[in-house]
Amino acid sequence: MIDTSCLAVILAAGEGTRMKSDLPKVLHPVGGRPLIDAVLESARAGGASRFAVVIGAGADKVRAHLGKVAANLEVFEQRERLGTAHATLAAREALVDHNGPVLVLFGDTPLVRPATISALSERLSAGADVALLGFETDAPTGYGRLIIKDERLVAIVEEKDADAETKAIRVCNSGIMAFRQGLLPELLDAIGNANAKGEYYLTDAIAVATARGLRAEAVIGEDESEFVGINDRAQLAAAEAIFQQRMRAEAMASGVTLVAPETVFFSFDTRLGRDVVVEPNVVFAPGVDVASGATIRAFSHLEGAKVAGGAIVGPYARLRPGADLAENVHVGNFVEIKNARVDRGAKVNHLTYIGDASIGARTNVGAGTITCNYDGFFKHKTIIGADVFVGSNTVMVAPVTVGDNALTAAGSVITTDVPPDAMAFGRARQDVKEGMGAAKKAMLAAKKASAKPAG
Ligand code: UD1
Ligand code: MG
What we know:
binds uridine-diphosphate-N-acetylglucosamine; 10 helices; UDP N-Acetylglucosamine Acyltransferase, domain 1; alpha/beta; about 20% helix; elongated; Spore Coat Polysaccharide Biosynthesis Protein SpsA, Chain A; 2 domains; binds magnesium ion
Protein backbone atom coordinates (compact mmCIF):
# COMPACT_ATOMS: atom_id res chain seq x y z
CA MET A 1 0.00 0.00 0.00
CA ILE A 2 1.44 3.37 -1.02
CA ASP A 3 -0.09 6.63 0.04
CA THR A 4 1.03 10.20 0.28
CA SER A 5 -0.34 11.12 3.68
CA CYS A 6 1.55 11.54 6.91
CA LEU A 7 2.39 8.33 8.75
CA ALA A 8 2.55 8.51 12.54
CA VAL A 9 4.74 5.93 14.24
CA ILE A 10 3.95 5.73 17.94
CA LEU A 11 6.45 4.04 20.23
CA ALA A 12 4.74 2.18 23.01
CA ALA A 13 6.91 -0.87 23.65
CA GLY A 14 8.93 0.35 26.63
CA GLU A 15 8.96 -1.56 29.90
CA GLY A 16 7.74 1.44 31.86
CA THR A 17 9.95 0.17 34.69
CA ARG A 18 9.72 3.41 36.61
CA MET A 19 5.91 3.11 36.84
CA LYS A 20 6.27 -0.06 38.96
CA SER A 21 2.99 -1.33 37.55
CA ASP A 22 1.38 -4.48 36.19
CA LEU A 23 -0.46 -2.30 33.68
CA PRO A 24 1.59 -1.33 30.59
CA LYS A 25 2.59 2.33 30.89
CA VAL A 26 0.71 3.53 27.82
CA LEU A 27 -2.56 2.15 29.21
CA HIS A 28 -2.40 4.30 32.33
CA PRO A 29 -5.01 7.04 32.04
CA VAL A 30 -4.81 10.80 32.01
CA GLY A 31 -8.17 12.55 31.99
CA GLY A 32 -9.89 9.16 31.97
CA ARG A 33 -8.25 7.92 28.78
CA PRO A 34 -5.17 5.77 28.22
CA LEU A 35 -2.02 7.68 27.25
CA ILE A 36 -1.83 5.86 23.92
CA ASP A 37 -5.33 7.04 22.95
CA ALA A 38 -4.42 10.64 23.69
CA VAL A 39 -1.29 10.37 21.56
CA LEU A 40 -3.20 8.78 18.66
CA GLU A 41 -5.80 11.53 18.83
CA SER A 42 -3.18 14.33 18.87
CA ALA A 43 -1.40 12.73 15.91
CA ARG A 44 -4.66 12.42 13.99
CA ALA A 45 -5.75 15.97 14.71
CA GLY A 46 -2.19 17.15 13.96
CA GLY A 47 -2.38 15.81 10.41
CA ALA A 48 -1.51 12.09 10.42
CA SER A 49 -3.82 9.73 8.59
CA ARG A 50 -1.93 6.45 8.85
CA PHE A 51 -0.84 4.98 12.17
CA ALA A 52 1.75 2.41 13.15
CA VAL A 53 2.03 1.53 16.82
CA VAL A 54 5.06 -0.32 18.15
CA ILE A 55 4.21 -2.48 21.14
CA GLY A 56 6.34 -4.77 23.28
CA ALA A 57 6.07 -4.81 27.05
CA GLY A 58 2.58 -6.00 27.95
CA ALA A 59 1.95 -6.52 24.23
CA ASP A 60 -1.18 -8.64 24.69
CA LYS A 61 -2.92 -6.02 26.79
CA VAL A 62 -1.89 -3.14 24.54
CA ARG A 63 -2.87 -5.04 21.38
CA ALA A 64 -6.27 -5.93 22.85
CA HIS A 65 -6.82 -2.29 23.76
CA LEU A 66 -5.79 -0.99 20.34
CA GLY A 67 -8.20 -3.45 18.72
CA LYS A 68 -11.00 -1.67 20.54
CA VAL A 69 -10.02 1.91 19.72
CA ALA A 70 -9.36 2.01 16.00
CA ALA A 71 -9.48 -0.40 13.11
CA ASN A 72 -7.06 1.42 10.77
CA LEU A 73 -3.96 0.83 12.87
CA GLU A 74 -0.92 -1.21 11.98
CA VAL A 75 0.59 -2.83 15.02
CA PHE A 76 4.23 -3.95 15.19
CA GLU A 77 5.98 -5.82 17.94
CA GLN A 78 9.44 -4.95 19.21
CA ARG A 79 10.59 -8.24 20.72
CA GLU A 80 13.53 -6.90 22.73
CA ARG A 81 13.74 -3.47 24.26
CA LEU A 82 16.90 -2.09 22.71
CA GLY A 83 15.96 1.58 22.57
CA THR A 84 13.80 4.06 20.71
CA ALA A 85 15.61 3.74 17.35
CA HIS A 86 15.35 -0.03 17.55
CA ALA A 87 11.66 0.33 18.35
CA THR A 88 11.08 2.60 15.35
CA LEU A 89 12.76 0.02 13.13
CA ALA A 90 10.21 -2.55 14.23
CA ALA A 91 7.81 -0.60 12.02
CA ARG A 92 10.18 -0.76 9.03
CA GLU A 93 7.54 -2.41 6.86
CA ALA A 94 5.26 0.60 7.22
CA LEU A 95 8.16 3.05 6.80
CA VAL A 96 9.42 1.60 3.54
CA ASP A 97 6.09 1.44 1.82
CA HIS A 98 5.10 4.91 2.87
CA ASN A 99 5.16 7.70 0.39
CA GLY A 100 4.96 10.78 2.57
CA PRO A 101 6.38 12.40 5.68
CA VAL A 102 6.76 10.37 8.86
CA LEU A 103 6.00 11.58 12.34
CA VAL A 104 7.41 9.73 15.35
CA LEU A 105 5.74 10.19 18.71
CA PHE A 106 6.22 8.58 22.11
CA GLY A 107 3.28 6.81 23.68
CA ASP A 108 4.11 8.36 27.04
CA THR A 109 3.76 12.01 26.00
CA PRO A 110 0.00 12.61 25.89
CA LEU A 111 -0.50 16.36 26.26
CA VAL A 112 0.83 17.72 22.97
CA ARG A 113 -1.63 19.93 21.14
CA PRO A 114 -2.42 19.11 17.50
CA ALA A 115 -1.42 22.59 16.35
CA THR A 116 2.01 22.09 17.86
CA ILE A 117 2.43 18.89 15.86
CA SER A 118 1.33 20.60 12.64
CA ALA A 119 4.17 23.09 13.10
CA LEU A 120 6.63 20.24 12.44
CA SER A 121 5.10 19.39 9.06
CA GLU A 122 5.28 23.06 8.14
CA ARG A 123 9.02 22.99 8.84
CA LEU A 124 9.42 20.05 6.48
CA SER A 125 7.46 21.86 3.80
CA ALA A 126 9.79 24.83 4.30
CA GLY A 127 12.84 22.68 3.53
CA ALA A 128 13.95 20.89 6.67
CA ASP A 129 14.82 17.20 6.36
CA VAL A 130 14.12 16.53 10.02
CA ALA A 131 12.11 18.68 12.41
CA LEU A 132 11.90 18.06 16.14
CA LEU A 133 9.75 19.53 18.89
CA GLY A 134 11.76 20.91 21.77
CA PHE A 135 10.84 22.84 24.89
CA GLU A 136 12.58 24.93 27.47
CA THR A 137 12.27 23.99 31.12
CA ASP A 138 13.77 24.72 34.51
CA ALA A 139 13.53 20.98 35.28
CA PRO A 140 15.39 19.31 32.40
CA THR A 141 16.56 16.26 34.36
CA GLY A 142 15.84 13.04 32.49
CA TYR A 143 15.23 14.62 29.10
CA GLY A 144 17.59 14.62 26.13
CA ARG A 145 19.28 18.03 25.64
CA LEU A 146 19.22 19.80 22.29
CA ILE A 147 22.52 20.98 20.84
CA ILE A 148 21.64 23.90 18.59
CA LYS A 149 24.24 25.74 16.48
CA ASP A 150 23.42 28.55 14.07
CA GLU A 151 19.71 27.74 14.19
CA ARG A 152 20.45 24.15 13.21
CA LEU A 153 19.78 21.25 15.53
CA VAL A 154 23.03 19.30 15.36
CA ALA A 155 22.67 16.62 18.04
CA ILE A 156 20.72 15.42 21.07
CA VAL A 157 22.54 14.25 24.17
CA GLU A 158 20.74 11.97 26.59
CA GLU A 159 20.87 12.73 30.32
CA LYS A 160 22.98 9.66 31.07
CA ASP A 161 25.56 10.63 28.44
CA ALA A 162 25.69 14.33 29.28
CA ASP A 163 28.61 16.10 30.93
CA ALA A 164 28.00 18.89 33.44
CA GLU A 165 28.03 21.59 30.76
CA THR A 166 25.47 19.74 28.63
CA LYS A 167 23.30 19.03 31.67
CA ALA A 168 23.05 22.78 32.20
CA ILE A 169 21.23 23.12 28.85
CA ARG A 170 17.55 23.73 29.49
CA VAL A 171 16.27 23.12 25.96
CA CYS A 172 15.00 19.55 25.81
CA ASN A 173 13.70 16.91 23.45
CA SER A 174 9.95 16.24 23.60
CA GLY A 175 10.44 13.06 21.58
CA ILE A 176 8.22 14.21 18.72
CA MET A 177 10.00 14.30 15.37
CA ALA A 178 9.08 14.57 11.71
CA PHE A 179 11.13 13.19 8.84
CA ARG A 180 10.78 13.96 5.19
CA GLN A 181 9.63 11.18 2.95
CA GLY A 182 11.94 8.17 2.60
CA LEU A 183 14.64 9.40 4.96
CA LEU A 184 13.99 7.57 8.21
CA PRO A 185 14.99 3.95 7.39
CA GLU A 186 18.51 4.93 6.28
CA LEU A 187 19.05 7.17 9.33
CA LEU A 188 17.89 4.39 11.64
CA ASP A 189 20.22 1.88 10.01
CA ALA A 190 23.17 4.16 10.73
CA ILE A 191 22.45 4.50 14.47
CA GLY A 192 24.69 2.54 16.82
CA ASN A 193 24.49 1.80 20.54
CA ALA A 194 27.78 3.15 21.88
CA ASN A 195 26.30 5.09 24.79
CA ALA A 196 25.80 4.87 28.55
CA LYS A 197 22.69 2.67 28.26
CA GLY A 198 23.93 0.54 25.37
CA GLU A 199 20.69 1.35 23.53
CA TYR A 200 19.87 2.42 20.00
CA TYR A 201 18.69 5.98 20.54
CA LEU A 202 16.29 7.53 18.04
CA THR A 203 17.68 10.86 19.18
CA ASP A 204 20.95 9.97 17.42
CA ALA A 205 19.11 10.38 14.10
CA ILE A 206 19.89 14.09 14.48
CA ALA A 207 23.69 13.66 14.64
CA VAL A 208 23.54 11.15 11.77
CA ALA A 209 21.50 13.55 9.63
CA THR A 210 23.84 16.44 10.46
CA ALA A 211 26.90 14.35 9.54
CA ARG A 212 25.32 13.70 6.15
CA GLY A 213 24.82 17.40 5.51
CA LEU A 214 21.04 17.18 6.00
CA ARG A 215 19.07 19.95 7.64
CA ALA A 216 17.62 19.27 11.10
CA GLU A 217 15.66 21.98 12.90
CA ALA A 218 14.04 22.31 16.28
CA VAL A 219 10.68 23.92 16.81
CA ILE A 220 10.62 25.19 20.38
CA GLY A 221 7.14 24.86 21.84
CA GLU A 222 5.93 27.83 23.86
CA ASP A 223 4.04 25.86 26.47
CA GLU A 224 6.32 23.55 28.37
CA SER A 225 3.35 21.71 29.88
CA GLU A 226 2.53 20.08 26.54
CA PHE A 227 5.68 18.02 26.60
CA VAL A 228 5.67 16.30 29.93
CA GLY A 229 6.74 12.69 29.41
CA ILE A 230 5.34 10.14 31.81
CA ASN A 231 7.89 7.74 33.24
CA ASP A 232 6.76 7.45 36.86
CA ARG A 233 3.69 8.03 39.02
CA ALA A 234 4.74 11.54 40.00
CA GLN A 235 4.89 12.54 36.32
CA LEU A 236 1.52 10.82 35.78
CA ALA A 237 0.05 13.00 38.52
CA ALA A 238 1.77 16.09 37.10
CA ALA A 239 0.29 15.36 33.66
CA GLU A 240 -3.15 14.85 35.19
CA ALA A 241 -2.88 18.21 36.95
CA ILE A 242 -1.95 19.95 33.68
CA PHE A 243 -4.81 18.23 31.89
CA GLN A 244 -7.30 19.31 34.57
CA GLN A 245 -6.08 22.91 34.46
CA ARG A 246 -6.64 22.96 30.72
CA MET A 247 -10.13 21.53 30.96
CA ARG A 248 -11.13 23.97 33.70
CA ALA A 249 -9.85 26.92 31.70
CA GLU A 250 -11.64 25.71 28.56
CA ALA A 251 -14.91 25.15 30.44
CA MET A 252 -14.85 28.65 31.94
CA ALA A 253 -13.87 30.21 28.62
CA SER A 254 -16.91 28.57 27.03
CA GLY A 255 -19.33 29.98 29.60
CA VAL A 256 -19.43 27.42 32.41
CA THR A 257 -19.39 28.62 36.02
CA LEU A 258 -17.00 26.65 38.20
CA VAL A 259 -17.46 27.91 41.74
CA ALA A 260 -14.16 26.36 42.87
CA PRO A 261 -12.38 25.29 39.67
CA GLU A 262 -9.50 23.50 41.36
CA THR A 263 -11.94 21.02 42.98
CA VAL A 264 -13.72 19.97 39.79
CA PHE A 265 -12.29 17.05 37.80
CA PHE A 266 -12.92 16.42 34.12
CA SER A 267 -12.47 13.64 31.60
CA PHE A 268 -11.18 14.05 28.08
CA ASP A 269 -14.70 13.95 26.65
CA THR A 270 -16.66 15.93 29.26
CA ARG A 271 -19.13 18.26 27.57
CA LEU A 272 -20.70 21.12 29.50
CA GLY A 273 -23.05 23.61 27.85
CA ARG A 274 -23.16 27.35 28.35
CA ASP A 275 -24.35 28.55 31.74
CA VAL A 276 -23.91 25.19 33.39
CA VAL A 277 -23.06 25.79 37.03
CA VAL A 278 -20.75 23.35 38.77
CA GLU A 279 -20.43 23.60 42.53
CA PRO A 280 -17.29 22.45 44.39
CA ASN A 281 -15.97 18.89 44.48
CA VAL A 282 -17.59 17.38 41.43
CA VAL A 283 -16.05 14.55 39.38
CA PHE A 284 -16.88 14.04 35.71
CA ALA A 285 -15.77 10.53 34.77
CA PRO A 286 -15.83 9.69 31.03
CA GLY A 287 -18.92 10.06 28.88
CA VAL A 288 -20.76 12.97 30.49
CA ASP A 289 -22.81 15.50 28.59
CA VAL A 290 -24.47 18.33 30.52
CA ALA A 291 -26.69 20.70 28.54
CA SER A 292 -26.95 24.44 28.82
CA GLY A 293 -28.35 25.76 32.07
CA ALA A 294 -28.11 22.65 34.22
CA THR A 295 -26.69 22.79 37.75
CA ILE A 296 -24.41 20.17 39.23
CA ARG A 297 -24.31 20.67 42.96
CA ALA A 298 -21.46 19.88 45.32
CA PHE A 299 -19.90 16.43 45.82
CA SER A 300 -21.55 14.72 42.87
CA HIS A 301 -19.98 12.00 40.70
CA LEU A 302 -21.15 11.57 37.10
CA GLU A 303 -20.14 8.95 34.54
CA GLY A 304 -21.64 8.05 31.16
CA ALA A 305 -24.59 10.32 31.91
CA LYS A 306 -26.69 12.87 30.05
CA VAL A 307 -28.20 15.85 31.86
CA ALA A 308 -30.59 18.18 30.07
CA GLY A 309 -31.06 21.91 30.58
CA GLY A 310 -32.62 23.13 33.81
CA ALA A 311 -31.89 19.88 35.60
CA ILE A 312 -30.40 20.00 39.09
CA VAL A 313 -28.15 17.17 40.23
CA GLY A 314 -26.91 16.76 43.81
CA PRO A 315 -25.53 17.65 46.23
CA TYR A 316 -24.07 14.17 46.78
CA ALA A 317 -25.63 12.52 43.73
CA ARG A 318 -24.18 9.70 41.69
CA LEU A 319 -25.08 9.33 38.03
CA ARG A 320 -23.79 6.08 36.53
CA PRO A 321 -23.60 4.99 32.89
CA GLY A 322 -26.89 5.26 31.05
CA ALA A 323 -28.42 7.86 33.38
CA ASP A 324 -30.43 10.16 31.14
CA LEU A 325 -32.09 13.13 32.81
CA ALA A 326 -34.56 15.27 30.83
CA GLU A 327 -35.23 19.00 31.27
CA ASN A 328 -35.87 20.24 34.79
CA VAL A 329 -35.39 16.90 36.49
CA HIS A 330 -34.21 17.10 40.08
CA VAL A 331 -31.92 14.43 41.48
CA GLY A 332 -31.03 15.08 45.09
CA ASN A 333 -28.74 13.94 47.84
CA PHE A 334 -27.60 10.31 48.15
CA VAL A 335 -29.41 9.28 45.00
CA GLU A 336 -27.84 6.83 42.56
CA ILE A 337 -29.17 6.51 39.03
CA LYS A 338 -27.96 3.89 36.53
CA ASN A 339 -29.20 3.02 33.05
CA ALA A 340 -32.42 4.93 33.54
CA ARG A 341 -34.32 7.64 31.72
CA VAL A 342 -35.94 10.23 33.96
CA ASP A 343 -38.42 12.32 32.04
CA ARG A 344 -39.13 16.06 32.20
CA GLY A 345 -39.77 17.59 35.58
CA ALA A 346 -39.58 14.32 37.53
CA LYS A 347 -38.06 14.48 41.02
CA VAL A 348 -35.92 11.89 42.73
CA ASN A 349 -34.70 13.84 45.67
CA HIS A 350 -33.54 11.71 48.58
CA LEU A 351 -31.72 8.46 49.42
CA THR A 352 -32.82 6.46 46.40
CA TYR A 353 -31.50 3.87 43.92
CA ILE A 354 -32.98 3.85 40.42
CA GLY A 355 -31.41 1.25 38.11
CA ASP A 356 -32.54 -0.18 34.75
CA ALA A 357 -35.67 1.94 34.85
CA SER A 358 -37.67 4.64 33.20
CA ILE A 359 -39.55 7.31 35.08
CA GLY A 360 -42.24 9.38 33.39
CA ALA A 361 -42.66 13.14 33.34
CA ARG A 362 -43.50 14.96 36.57
CA THR A 363 -43.37 11.78 38.64
CA ASN A 364 -42.28 12.22 42.24
CA VAL A 365 -40.15 9.48 43.72
CA GLY A 366 -40.27 9.50 47.53
CA ALA A 367 -37.29 9.22 49.84
CA GLY A 368 -35.69 5.82 50.21
CA THR A 369 -37.15 4.28 47.06
CA ILE A 370 -35.25 1.30 45.65
CA THR A 371 -35.59 -0.49 42.34
CA CYS A 372 -34.60 -4.13 42.89
CA ASN A 373 -33.24 -4.60 39.39
CA TYR A 374 -31.01 -7.63 39.95
CA ASP A 375 -31.95 -11.12 41.10
CA GLY A 376 -28.39 -12.34 41.33
CA PHE A 377 -28.47 -13.64 37.73
CA PHE A 378 -30.42 -11.25 35.54
CA LYS A 379 -31.21 -7.55 35.38
CA HIS A 380 -34.85 -6.50 35.08
CA LYS A 381 -36.61 -3.25 34.20
CA THR A 382 -38.83 -1.04 36.28
CA ILE A 383 -41.18 1.17 34.28
CA ILE A 384 -42.85 4.01 36.13
CA GLY A 385 -45.27 6.18 34.17
CA ALA A 386 -45.93 9.92 34.19
CA ASP A 387 -47.45 11.82 37.15
CA VAL A 388 -46.90 8.89 39.49
CA PHE A 389 -46.44 9.45 43.20
CA VAL A 390 -44.05 6.86 44.61
CA GLY A 391 -44.46 6.75 48.39
CA SER A 392 -41.34 6.91 50.54
CA ASN A 393 -39.46 3.71 51.10
CA THR A 394 -41.10 1.89 48.21
CA VAL A 395 -39.29 -1.17 46.90
CA MET A 396 -39.99 -1.92 43.23
CA VAL A 397 -39.20 -5.58 42.56
CA ALA A 398 -38.43 -5.67 38.83
CA PRO A 399 -39.69 -6.51 36.31
CA VAL A 400 -42.60 -4.29 37.26
CA THR A 401 -44.64 -1.49 35.70
CA VAL A 402 -46.50 1.33 37.43
CA GLY A 403 -49.04 3.09 35.21
CA ASP A 404 -49.50 6.83 34.71
CA ASN A 405 -50.98 8.78 37.58
CA ALA A 406 -50.80 5.86 40.01
CA LEU A 407 -49.71 6.05 43.64
CA THR A 408 -47.82 3.63 45.84
CA ALA A 409 -48.22 3.73 49.60
CA ALA A 410 -45.15 4.51 51.67
CA GLY A 411 -43.22 1.41 52.70
CA SER A 412 -44.69 -0.74 49.94
CA VAL A 413 -42.95 -3.65 48.29
CA ILE A 414 -44.34 -3.57 44.75
CA THR A 415 -44.10 -7.00 43.13
CA THR A 416 -46.89 -6.85 40.56
CA ASP A 417 -47.87 -4.26 37.98
CA VAL A 418 -49.94 -1.27 39.12
CA PRO A 419 -52.49 0.00 36.58
CA PRO A 420 -52.84 3.70 35.74
CA ASP A 421 -54.70 5.80 38.34
CA ALA A 422 -54.56 3.01 40.94
CA MET A 423 -53.15 3.13 44.44
CA ALA A 424 -51.06 0.15 45.52
CA PHE A 425 -50.50 -0.93 49.11
CA GLY A 426 -47.78 -3.51 49.50
CA ARG A 427 -47.35 -3.61 53.26
CA ALA A 428 -48.92 -5.18 56.36
CA ARG A 429 -51.95 -3.33 57.73
CA GLN A 430 -51.18 -1.36 60.88
CA ASP A 431 -52.60 -2.78 64.13
CA VAL A 432 -53.13 -0.44 67.15
CA LYS A 433 -53.53 -1.87 70.72
CA GLU A 434 -54.88 0.78 73.12
CA GLY A 435 -52.84 1.11 76.37
CA MET A 436 -50.32 -1.55 75.42
CA GLY A 437 -47.40 0.89 75.15
CA ALA A 438 -47.76 2.18 78.73
CA ALA A 439 -48.21 -1.35 80.08
CA LYS A 440 -45.08 -2.58 78.38
CA LYS A 441 -43.00 0.33 79.73
CA ALA A 442 -44.24 -0.29 83.28
CA MET A 443 -43.39 -3.97 83.02
CA LEU A 444 -39.84 -3.24 81.81
CA ALA A 445 -39.22 -0.58 84.46
CA ALA A 446 -40.24 -3.03 87.21
CA LYS A 447 -37.94 -5.70 85.83
CA LYS A 448 -34.96 -3.29 85.78
CA ALA A 449 -35.61 -2.15 89.41
CA SER A 450 -35.79 -5.73 90.76
CA ALA A 451 -32.53 -6.66 88.99
CA LYS A 452 -30.55 -3.84 90.76
CA PRO A 453 -27.97 -5.15 93.25
CA ALA A 454 -28.68 -4.09 96.89
CA GLY A 455 -26.85 -0.97 98.21
C1 UD1 B 1 13.07 9.83 25.67
C2 UD1 B 1 14.14 10.46 24.77
C3 UD1 B 1 14.55 11.79 25.39
C4 UD1 B 1 13.35 12.69 25.53
C5 UD1 B 1 12.24 12.00 26.33
C6 UD1 B 1 10.96 12.82 26.25
C7 UD1 B 1 15.45 8.72 23.63
C8 UD1 B 1 16.70 7.92 23.64
N1 UD1 B 1 15.28 9.56 24.66
O1 UD1 B 1 13.63 9.52 26.93
O2 UD1 B 1 15.52 12.44 24.55
O3 UD1 B 1 13.71 13.91 26.15
O4 UD1 B 1 11.96 10.70 25.79
O5 UD1 B 1 9.95 12.31 27.08
O6 UD1 B 1 14.68 8.59 22.70
N2 UD1 B 1 10.27 2.68 23.81
C9 UD1 B 1 10.09 1.57 23.02
N3 UD1 B 1 11.08 0.64 22.95
C10 UD1 B 1 12.27 0.79 23.59
C11 UD1 B 1 12.43 1.94 24.40
C12 UD1 B 1 11.44 2.87 24.48
O7 UD1 B 1 9.04 1.42 22.40
O8 UD1 B 1 13.12 -0.09 23.45
C13 UD1 B 1 9.18 3.69 23.88
C14 UD1 B 1 8.58 3.83 25.28
O9 UD1 B 1 7.44 2.99 25.41
C15 UD1 B 1 8.19 5.31 25.33
C16 UD1 B 1 9.16 5.96 24.38
O10 UD1 B 1 9.69 4.95 23.55
O11 UD1 B 1 6.88 5.53 24.91
C17 UD1 B 1 10.27 6.71 25.09
O12 UD1 B 1 10.97 5.81 25.91
P1 UD1 B 1 11.36 6.19 27.40
O13 UD1 B 1 12.07 5.04 28.00
O14 UD1 B 1 10.22 6.75 28.12
O15 UD1 B 1 12.45 7.32 27.10
P2 UD1 B 1 12.85 8.57 28.00
O16 UD1 B 1 13.85 8.13 29.01
O17 UD1 B 1 11.64 9.21 28.51
MG1 MG C 1 9.63 8.70 28.54
